[in-house]
Each structure stands twice: as C-alpha cells, then as structure tokens.
Amino acid sequence: MTAVYVTHDQAEAMSMADKVVIMNAGQIEQFDSPEAIYHHPKSEFVAQFIGKSNRLPSPQGHAFIRMEKLKPHAAANDNDLQFEGSIINARFQGQHYLVEANVAGEKWHFFASQRPTPGEAVSLYCAPEDIQRIHL
C-alpha cells in the first residue's frame, strides 16, 4: 500500500517511512531512504535540515560532520582529525549534554558526558571517514 504522509516531525518521518521527500521553498531537495538522506545528503540544505551538522569549508564543495561523530578531549587513534574551539553553552538532556562551541567562527554542536564551562577551550576529534562532502 502506498500512502503519503506530510509532517514537520523529522523523527517521525525518518522512523516510519521507506522513502522521504525533503522540500525547500516548494522544490524537492532529495527523495531517498531515511538512511541515505541522513548519511548522504545531496545538498547543504538537507544536511542542515535533518539532524545537526557541523559545517567545514572545503574547496571541493561543502563538507560537514554529524555532531554524534565528534569526540571531545580524546582522539581514538593517530589518524583522527582535531578541531579547536571554545564552549558557548551546554544544555543537559538526560544521558548527555548538548554542547555548542565556536570552531573557526562556526557554531558547532556535539555531545559531552560532563557539563563544560562557557569560554572553556575544547579539542574535538573525528575520524577522517566521518567527514562527508557535498559537491555543489
């Protein structure tokens, strides 16, 4: 059975649909599976619209990293990329804190197990393969 369900609730759409259409100003940005939309967005709009993404400038297009891929204060191995920033604020969300940081003039988000102090310096690490690129 085919059904069309219109919602602004991202979690609901991603959990119940086989295919999702992301629209922007009346135009289709991406029509794909929920997994493809989240892990392989076709545009910067989709990357920013679904979940929280941290944008990196890149000469080959736009690059981003999902906030759950960032690890504060500890590299997993010698290949991890490192980003320096300063804490803006943190909000307690039960099992973790949702943290905002200034990284190279961009507002980034990541999860932390302890509340950081605003103004505190932070080192964030991620695996190179966790950087996703969108070619415009």
TrEMBL record:
It comes from the Bacteria. It comes from Vibrio maritimus. Gene3D superfamilies: 2.40.50.100, P-loop containing nucleotide triphosphate hydrolases. GO terms for cellular component: ATP-binding cassette (ABC) transporter complex, substrate-binding subunit-containing. Keywords: Cell membrane, Membrane. This is Various polyols ABC transporter. It holds the Pfam family TOBE_2. The keyword Membrane applies. The lineage of its organism: Bacteria, Pseudomonadati, Pseudomonadota, Gammaproteobacteria, Vibrionales. Coiled coil: none annotated. InterPro entries: ABC_transpr_MalK/UgpC-like (IPR047641), Mo/tungstate-bd_C_term_dom (IPR008995), P-loop_NTPase (IPR027417), Transp-assoc_OB_typ2 (IPR013611). SUPFAM superfamilies: MOP-like, P-loop containing nucleoside triphosphate hydrolases.
